[in-house]
Amino acid sequence: MKKSNIIMLLAAILPLGLFLFPLWKITLEAPQYPIPLGMYIHINDFSDANPHDIKNINLMNHYVGMKYIPDAIPEFKIFPIGIIITSVIGLLIAFKGNYKWFLGWFILMIAISAAGMYDFYLWEHDYGHNLDPKAIMKFTNPDGTQMGFQPPLFGSRDILNFKAHSYPQLGALFLTLGIATGLIAYFIGKKNHKKSLLM
Amino acid sequence: MKNLLKLTLALVFVLFTYTSCNNSKSSDNKSGALASNVAEKVYVAPGEHDEFYAFISGGYSGNLTVYGLPSGRMFKEIPVFSQFATSGYGYSEETKPMLNTSHGFIPWGDSHHPDISQTKGEIDGRFVFINENNTPRIAKIDLKTFETTEIIEVPNSAGNHSSSFVTENTEYVVAGTRFSVPIPQRDMPINEYKGNFQGALSFISVAPETGNMDIKFQVLMPGFNYDLSHPGRGKSHGWFFFTTYNTEEASSLLEVNASQNDKDFIAAVNWKKIEDYVNNGGGTMMPADYAHNVYDEHTHTATSTMKKEVRVVNPVDVPGAVFFLPTPKSPHGCDVDPSGEYIVGNGKLSANLTVHSFTKMLAAIEGEKFDGEAYGIPILKFEDVLAGSVEQPGLGPLHTEFDGQGNAYTTFFISSEVVKWKLGTWEVIDRKPTYYSVGHLTIPGGNSGKPQGKYMFAMNKITKDRYLPTGPEMEHSAQLYDISGEKMELLLDFPTHGEPHYAAAMRADLIKERSQKIYNLEDNKHPYAAFTDDDTKVVRKGNEVHIYMTTIRSHFSPDNIEGVKVGDKVYFHVTNLEQDFDVPHGFAVLGQNTSELLIMPGQTKSSVWEPTKVGVWPFYCTDFCSALHQEMQGYIRVSPADSNTPIKWSLGEDIE
Ligand SMILES: [Cu+2]
């Protein structure tokens, strides 16, 4: 097996780390929570950073009219299938395909990840803006529009008395590494191809 | 943070000296906290934690209070033997059984000597045991939750004072009787006390895993007063030592009649020997009535079981198990040093402090050098067991603790002081006054093989001029001393609640790591729990109405209840659905004739309310729980006894 194909094999396997480690983490800090509240987003689940955190986030958020974080979202069915399919494709081209396919896989993965991030953004936006009109507390921005409570997609932001942090976790690292390795496999494959043509 | 404090203090000091330069008098006087940095030694900065927990008994309050050291801040009052309206302990349906006894429901107690469980002679921080003197009982408090989880009544006992000290692997908690009584109890002339009354020393086994208590056996001793006790440790593990007074066996005017003998005894009990005897079928079962109350953390409910018999042992039937060590005069405290060699008998009417040697005691027993016997129990010769004595250290020695560095600290009630002396040489090293009339003193890890001799605190009976006069009755006072150096240094006065009789203290980190923050709702097995608003309901059973209610920030469910009638017995079963640390909810209804409830996250508690008046009565949350705490309320409608208002309940809507 060619060196580039072995690297491609690795690229196809790495994203499966998403099934072992969380993808993302949102943390909420406030003075009355010496241990910050937090939730992990996995490929197929939400989970508490500390026991009962999601319940306590829900309880707190209902004051401003935010919905409860659901037990499951449709993406939890779609994402795992997507990752399994792309990994299988990656494995197939690692065994059978040439380096040009590797680039194709890389582009596919970028596209899927971007779509995923966009979906995540939409969900966060809805969660932070689609508020109960009977909310106990209502806040407006300086310009008079209703204040949203959307956590940042990436990075940190102050939301009322909370500081919200949103950062990728180990699962996201595996996915990124897999995608990057796909691109590396392409370049190595291309280089070797040129070498073999010259010889 | 400490540097900042030093800087501030230094700055203050500089300013102080600068301004006083303007005075004609110079500022040589360096007394007080600033000069010696004493304030810094007890200062625990905001957000920082105390190094030690101290569990101080409340005497007649029946409770146990938890303090931090070195700050002297009170953190919690744990109800044990007394009803406690703050939380509903002893008032709620679930906790009423905790105060059940063979004499019926007893709403108060007189708590004395807390002691922390041990493993291999070291404090393990699992449980605190504490005795109730008046109606003899021993309680166990779980240090995971700081809740009283078990209380066992002690039959054949009266004035449960030489208690509740534990052996070095918490094999037993001991409960010795202060007053001897007829055993079994019977109607007889009091002046026939001598020779007819007996003293029971109870050995309560503690199951290693669960901590469940059970009276394994009682030793029926001669009719003396058994005052205090301590376990042997290390080389003397397997023995227990009890001080006695009134070896005269007087029943009247004891202050004179029980102070006649030049020497009373320390009873040395080889419990291992008696345990073997019992394990081989020794002793006899005697009819006895006593309550065993156990709190179940899953049903959040206590049950009270009446026991019908107890195993008693006549010490004469177990040769070599019990001996008397003559000790001058009316010894009170009985304290064993960390090595287990020295047994300090604090003769409260004696000019000297008497210390016995365990090694010498064994040799004397071996040589059978007896000085007669009392009721068949051999009396050893005073000179044969004496290790030494501290000559004229003060007036009225009561209690001794040890720092693990070979030093002992004894309180003197009459001369109001603590005296530090050296084991083995018996020389006095230091003495410091206390304010005033000191009883017990505590060194963290005191009753163990490994004292943590950094601090010592004395518990005083009289407070006088130490605080703002709040009189006539004032809270008693504890005083904290730094004992890390050669000389003791008084650091702090702090008030305590009730009578601070004795205390057990330990490093905080052992408990902090295991502290339980909430009760898991999934583990709640309370028969009347409601886990969601959909589970809530109101059920009538004859004239009983059971309300399955939930609380969460910031509402009750249901919050409108109708169909209750005058003469009904209304049970509010309230489940707190919160799962966040330190978010209890309260419950109270107008005219409540028991007490409010304070319900911890994940817990269910029940309160009975017997409405006597027609009307619409509010109920509300008593614990400020959230921004909308004030809105956390509801109404219950009470109709006349003969009405037929149907049962209805609702939340978030009007009743049609
Ligand atoms: Cu509340």
Automatic annotation (TrEMBL), chain A:
Name of the featured protein: Copper chaperone NosL
Spans traversing the lipid bilayer: 76-95, 102-123, 170-189
Key words, A-Z: Membrane, Transmembrane, Transmembrane helix
TrEMBL record, chain B:
Cross-referenced Gene3D superfamilies: Cupredoxins - blue copper proteins (2.60.40.420), YVTN repeat-like/Quinoprotein amine dehydrogenase (2.130.10.10)
Single GO MF annotation: nitrous-oxide reductase activity
EC number: 1.7.2.4
Keywords linked to the UniProt accession: Copper, Metal-binding, Oxidoreductase, Signal
UniProt-annotated location(s): Cell envelope
Pfam families per UniProt: nos_propeller
Top-level enzyme category: oxidoreductase
Signal peptide location: 1-22
NCBIfam families in alphabetical order: nitrous_NosZ_Gp
Name of the molecule in the record: Sec-dependent nitrous-oxide reductase
Name of the gene encoding the protein in the UniProt record: nosZ
